[in-house]
Amino acid sequence: xxxxxxxxxxxxxxxxxxxxxxxxxxxxxxxxxxxxxxxxxxxxxxxxxxxxxxxxxxxxxxxxxxxxxxxxxxxxxxxxxxxxxxxxxxxxxxxxxxxxxxxxxxxxxxxxxxxxxxxxxxxxxxxxxxxxxxxxxxxxxxxxxxxxxxxxxxxxxxxxxxxxxxxxxxxxxxxxxxxxxxxxxxxxxxxxxxxxxxxxxxxxxxxxxxxxxxxxxxxxxxxxxxxxxxxxxxxxxxxxxxxxxxxxxxxxxxxxxxxxxxxxxxxxxxxxxxxxxxxxxxxxxxx
Amino acid sequence: xxxxxxxxxxxxxxxxxxxxxxxxxxxxxxxxxxxxxxxxxxxxxxxxxxxxxxxxxxxxxxxxxxxxxxxxxxxxxxxxxxxxxxxxxxxxxxxxxxxxxxxxxxxxxxxxxxxxxxxxxxxxxxxxxxxxxxxxxxxxxxxxxxxxxxxxxxxxxxxxxxxxxxxxxxxxxxxxxxxxxxxxxxxxxxxxxxxxxxxxxxxxxxxxxxxxxxxxxxxxxxxxxxxxxxxxxxxxxxxxxxxxxxxxxxxxxxxxxxxxxxxxxxxxxxxxxxxxxxxxxxxxxxxxxxxxxxxxxxxxxxxxxxxxxxxxxxxxxxxxxxxxxxxxxxxx
Lengths: 287, 332
What we know:
The complex is a heterodimer of chains A (about 290) and B (about 325).
Chain A: H1 8-42, H2 48-52, H3 68-100, H4 104-118, H5 121-135, H6 141-165, H7 169-177, H8 182-211, H9 214-219, H10 237-245, H11 250-281
Chain B: H1 2-9, H2 25-67, H3 70-75, E1 79-80, E2 85-86, H4 89-120, H5 123-138, H6 141-167, H7 184-207, H8 212-220, H9 225-254, H10 257-262, H11 280-286, H12 297-331
Antiparallel strand pairs in B: 1-2
Helix pairs in contact in B: 2-12, 4-7, 4-9, 5-7, 6-7, 7-9, 8-9, 9-12, 11-12
């Protein structure tokens, strides 16, 4: 027996554990570094003018103005995309659970949703552009919303689906045993149980939509004005960051950092908010 | 009226003697039937959408795919749109390099972090880790790009490149051929950090499916935690872990904006991690503005999108199938 002696396996244990701590420090460290970089470089350039005014004349040469056009544009785009995806996706999520369950066809639909989720946004952008050419739509808020809706749909359906799947089976079976049809189970039982999941899905979709640049690059265009019509192009925050960073003027680049900070803050608030809201709402569901 | 009568008498019988349960059973079944029909049409949508996207890309890129042998287009290394020469090889190579470097850097730390979260940490650490991972997955690509521009590119230029120049000169893969930090390595580092939250979350979810009893049995006969991980946990979920990493890789493959901002965008077939590259997504995003003015250019760019799409569809479908099989077991 090697009792008391330092065995090789214990050395391995300590070694691996050390590596794990190192990995966690690496992952957490680089992510903390991102937030820190964006905060320290973006904060000095942040001003009330940045968030309250659209670009004025000569903005891209360092003169006055802000990115209100992009903030509003991004909110429109993400809200429109999320709403469209919800209207399409909510029935799909309900249907998956109540009618399809774990049947082969249900698995097939889930597989295609997962595959759609993995399609990069640049491909959605290219597809959206093809679609626009086919129906004669120009770069506009509407086109951006359509593409974002397609992009967000799989994320939102899968988020709702995950929540429904965690619902106790007894609940559904009790309702069925009392003679409910599947539709009644879906509308009266599952929907109520799903409420926290729906909120999570909405905010998840919204967060993805507001941050995505590659898909709106082709489809929503860009403009210095605050958009007023679905058929006009609109600015968006990610593209505002992107374009301002490409500028040779340091003044404009700094505003790009500030715009990135604004975007990060919006996304972080949404992410934390969704956790908080769904935590509150899940108190009222049967576990 | 009938409703109130029901309440007063405590019976469900109406004046006509017919039971009042709301809509008749036939109406309810009909509603159920109709809803099923409507729902099933909607549910077909995701399946059809994949087909529509693929077909649209094939149709739009047909002029370029049909004009020359596919091999010549894919592996040609001359990219001169003005002369009608579209060789995808520099872009395919660039995409492969950046993705490989990114994934290579991410895999080990991600696996170890996921293993720690699943096998060692207490419930408090786990409760903190989940929201933090969600938060990090929510940071938009363009913000990662800003970080790459401000921190990673200078780091590569001022620290890693001089280091490689001094110590790794003999290895061709680390040869420093250009003065700036805009390189495959910068793109790879940014990608690694971007896909890390995603990969860790997937791996953690997979490790979570291993029944606790198996671990207990192994620990009870005297194995250390690491022996348990090596001998019991990992063999149980190895295919799933590989699938999760492949899924992360296919995320990295299509990442556009963040990579585009740091990778240099030079049309060349890279030979070193310090070379600039031009991945496919960056090509599509950058040249979008003037693609209509040159013949076949838009077909070529959409051909690039098609190549990207096909590769990702294949990777995604296979790894998702593996994951569904593995994770599905928990729900049944």
